[in-house]
Specification:
Number of strands: 16
Radius of gyration: 28 Å
CATH topology of the largest domain: BirA Bifunctional Protein, domain 2
Order of helices and strands: HHHHEHEHEHEEHEEHEEEHEEEHEEEHH
Number of domains: 2
Distance between the termini: 48 Å
CATH class of the largest domain: Alpha Beta
Helix content: 40-55%
Largest sheet: 8 strands, mixed
Structural class: alpha+beta
CATH architecture of the largest domain: 2-Layer Sandwich
Shape: elongated
Number of helices: 13
Strand content: 15-25%
CATH superfamily of the largest domain: Bira Bifunctional Protein, Domain 2
Length: 426
């Protein structure tokens, strides 16, 4: 959520930064400024009336002690009652205005950082680096991962559709074992690098979804249980970020680094016709998520470190990839700055997204009321939140199947997974 004080003091700057997202938010900002001015006028009026009420009460007490005429006292009491009625009438007006401001702020995206490249869409994202070109397989006719998996009998798409619907898959035998091995390897690697594992609830309330920015804007992409007002999580980022909602941490506790393996559930409402085959875009999938809580002064450094933590998984698996910085027109709703990791898929001879690593600055912290206090200093500050996939398990499996496919139809396992699977080939 954006800071209303920033909008109030630097409206043109806020409009300019938001316009970098390739949409004009001037009308929304002007509406906020109008409501904010009305709110401050009401607050000024309330303050004046409160002072007036206090003064009348003082006068009533003084006259009663001095034995003044009863009519004069009654007149003051009538005036006091009138002021109290006017004060009471202001309360619902302020409440309504405050709610209008809050709801509109919830719909506004984060401000891009000054470092974020300005661009219209994914075609203007900036490649930062590549890794592992030497590991790209030299195959004449590389098969897509779904054909490889179905031929090996480890991916069941048709039967999953029968028991659910499209964009679901059942993993069978070595497929289920491979998924478990990939996830176990990822978690062990991240824990060894200083992350604390969390196993969070998979169903969360609306306040939790609002805290990380999924609500109200992306309700159509989520699975909702309206009878209980609970939502299936689209990523572990949601419950983990909200672990500390409405709390005040100490600077000494930061950075906090959590990792989690959870199922993720997404309607993919805006992706009709995209990646209809395979493991790339499913309604249910497993993902290892990395979440950090930091101070504003260290968040840029922690962001780069978080990217490296996701990269190390691909390096250990010896999967070729590239790092891309997203431009303002392609960046997600809550991010101030974002890098994507894209893994090489031989079947399409392209890099495809496997991780998105974002720095939200204080955007989520304001929504979830996440604060910290510096030792020896008065007051609190909003902390910075960051997260990234470390990695999406199904997409990692698809990359392994394609990059490690053999001419005879088998798939060689990456060396780091062989001890976990107790075999060399699928």
């Amino acid at each position: 959520m954006l800071d209303i004080k920033l909008i109030r003091t630097q409206p043109d700057r806020v409009k300019e930064l938001l316009s970098r997202r390739q949409r004009d938010y001037s009308a929304e900002i002007d509406q906020l400024l109008h409501w904010d001015q009305q709110m401050r006028q009401l607050e000024t009026r309330r303050s004046h009336l409160q002072s007036q009420s206090n003064e009348i009460s003082r006068q009533i007490g003084q006259k009663m002690r001095s034995g003044a005429d009863a009519n004069a006292i009654e007149a003051l009491k009538a005036e006091s009652q009138h002021v109290k009625e006017e004060l009471a009438a202001l309360e619902p007006q302020e409440k309504e205005l405050r709610e209008h401001i809050h709801q509109l702020l919830l719909t506004l995206p984060n401000l891009p950082s000054e470092q974020t490249p300005i661009g219209r869409d994914e075609r203007e994202n900036v490649e930062v680096r590549r890794w592992g070109d030497e590991y790209k397989p030299q195959l004449e006719n590389p098969k897509p991962h779904w054909e490889i998996g179905e031929a090996l009998g480890i991916l069941e798409f048709a039967r999953a559709v029968k028991i659910a619907q499209t964009r679901f898959v059942a993993l069978v035998g070595a497929g289920a074992e491979l998924e478990r091995a990939i996830a176990q390897f990822m978690l062990a690697t991240h824990i060894a690098r200083g992350y604390t594992e969390v196993l969070p609830p998979l169903l969360v309330n609306s306040a939790t979804m609002t805290g990380t920015g999924q609500l109200p804007k992306f309700a159509q992409d989520l699975f909702h249980c309206p009878a209980d007002d609970l939502w299936l999580i689209p990523t572990a980022e949601v419950p983990i970020t909200n672990l500390y909602r409405d709390e005040i941490l100490t600077a000494e506790q930061l950075p906090i680094k959590h990792c989690a393996l959870t199922p993720c559930f997404r309607r993919e409402a805006g992706s009709y016709g995209k990646d209809t085959k395979g493991l790339i875009r499913l309604h249910q999938f497993h993902k290892v998520e990395l979440v950090k809580f930091t101070t504003p002064s260290t968040s840029a450094q922690e962001h780069e470190s978080l990217v490296n933590d996701a990269e190390i998984i691909l390096q250990l698996l010896q999967l070729p990839y590239r790092v891309v910085e997203l431009c303002t027109g392609d960046m997600g709703f809550g991010a101030a700055r974002c890098y994507d990791l894209e893994v090489w898929l031989p079947s399409v001879q392209q890099y495809r997204e496997i991780s998105s690593v974002s720095n939200f600055h204080d955007f989520q912290a304001r929504r979830a009321n996440l604060r910290y206090r510096e030792k020896g200093k008065k007051g609190t500050e909003f902390l910075h939140t960051l997260n990234g996939s470390g990695l999406a398990v199904g997409r990692t499996m698809s990359a392994i199947l394609e990059n490690y496919q053999q001419p005879d139809g088998r798939v060689k396992l990456p060396e780091v997974l062989q001890p976990l699977m107790k075999r060399e080939y699928l």
